[in-house]
Amino acid sequence: xxxxxxxxxxxxxxxxxxxxxxxxxxxxxxxxxxxxxxxxxxxxxxxxxxxxxxxxxxxxxxxxxxxxxxxxxxxxxxxxxxxxxxxxxxxxxxxxxxxxxxxxxxxxxxxxxxxxxxxxxxxxxxxxxxxxxxxxxxxxxxxxxxxxxxxxxxxxxxxxxxxxxxxxxxxxxxxxxxxxxxxxxxxxxxxxxxxxxxxxxxxxxxxxxxxxxxxxxxxxxxxxxxxxxxxxxxxxxxxxxxxxxxxxxxxxxxxxxxxxxxxxxxxxxxxxxxxxxxxxxxxxxxxxxxxxxxxxxxxxxxxxxxxxxxxxxxxxxxxxxxxxxxxxxxxxxxxxxxxxxxxxxxxxxxxxxxxxxxxxxxxxxxxxxxxxxxxxxxxxxxxxxxxxxxxxxxxxxxxxxxxxxxxxxxxxxxxxxxxxxxxxxxxxxxxxxxxxxxxxxxxxxxxxxxxxxxxxxxxxxxxxxxxxx
Length: 469
Prior knowledge:
This protein is mainly α.
């Protein structure tokens, strides 16, 4: 069984710091990259040549693809282009689990899952806004509707593939860099800024064009996506923004019968186009951020919701000398004693007392006393072991029935006062404790068979767990 380390922080953390917990390792992001790159290369080659070698898929446009000519109005070329990017998703997921050793849920958001509702809301906001900005630009440029004979097929392929293509780029080139730098660099802002710069640089250069305005446009797009991941605590809004942009452009070009949207080494732009792109991206980023604010989308990881590690994982880590103090309650007590992590005679409070505070009465295991005349006893929780049930008449109101066996050290029996009304005097039984004066009417209770003594460890190891002593 695969046991993932608990690399999430033990305190509230933003998205880019989700892999910066105490169980992180500096080399894990590098292992993830070493797994991702060859696996992605293999899958992309299989997809491209697997499609291209099918006789029925060989079209003039697909043959031109081999020499670098991309015609996105051809269904085969479009499918090859999209699938060659979509295969980044399984490659990345394998690298995240086996290389970065991170749960996929926390790679997606601070809640440890894909927030599908928020993803749908983000699409509902971004899609119409992109259409509002982009469609008029095509119309002002004098474009004419001239769809090809494969319009219906192209629309189906666009709707089915583009969201996954956009998600692949956001996960690999945005989320991956944020998590990598977030685990390496301490501090909230330095790790976020450096992760954003690395993501913008790689994302811009991979598109192939070295035109300054194209690079600036792509870098600004990347910064907006990073901001959305940070502000919304996950990848959903960034994926919706990226996918909405590509959907609108590809759908418009399908109706126009053109193929000018794919950036290559010869693509250029102008300062005016960059300015229009900045206004478009800034507006949509602001709209998504405002929606996240109004909907109170979770921005920080809640450590209380992090799944606890299982016994097998803790046993394996302990065998390597790694003990997690925050999960101390999950270890068998005998194992802790054997490893010298607790003293053999150290008293471990019963669960009923662990939440009590020593701010009230002198006794740290008591939070309140009843006012029964002459018989102060704990009120509101289980009495200490060693107080047997009083004998005789009916129980006094407000006097909870004591439970348990041997008396806990530091919890003396009541002293000196006459018994409360309704508690007849009982002669002390043989074997009563000698350290403290036994209260009148409170007979000593012999420990039951199998009950732990004062210095005896009551914990039992889980035989099904490979704990090493």
